[in-house]
Amino acid sequence: MISADEAKKLTIEEISRNIIDELTEVQVAILGAIREKKFSIVYEGHLTSKAIRVLNELNYKIYKMPFGDEVSYKIEWRKLI
Q: Is 81 inside a domain boundary?
């Protein structure tokens, strides 16, 4: 049986992996949009508040778009031209 401390440590590691996975998926979508000369994406997946905070810190604008029982996010970056 694992201890409570070990369980806490493993849970925190799993949360960190999930955030990294979310941000990796978003990054792939952003890079695809850049290749298509777009300045935004609609991400149809779950984003944790921590992932949203990271994106905000990187100066992305995030708009939550409820759609029935699902939620999408419009993620955009400013047009510099």
A: no
Q: By residue range, what is the domain housing residue 36?
A: 4-76
pTM, 2 dp: 0.83
Query: Checking DSSP bridges between strand 61-67 and strand 40-43, what pairing results, if any?
Result: unpaired
The rounded distance, in Å, linking the Cα atoms of 18 and 49 is 12
10: which 2 tokens? 């493993």
Q: State the average pLDDT for the chain.
A: 92
Does 49 fall in a domain?
yes
First to last CA, the chain: 59
pLDDT bin (cut points 50, 70, 90) of residue 45 is confident
H/E stretch holding 1: none
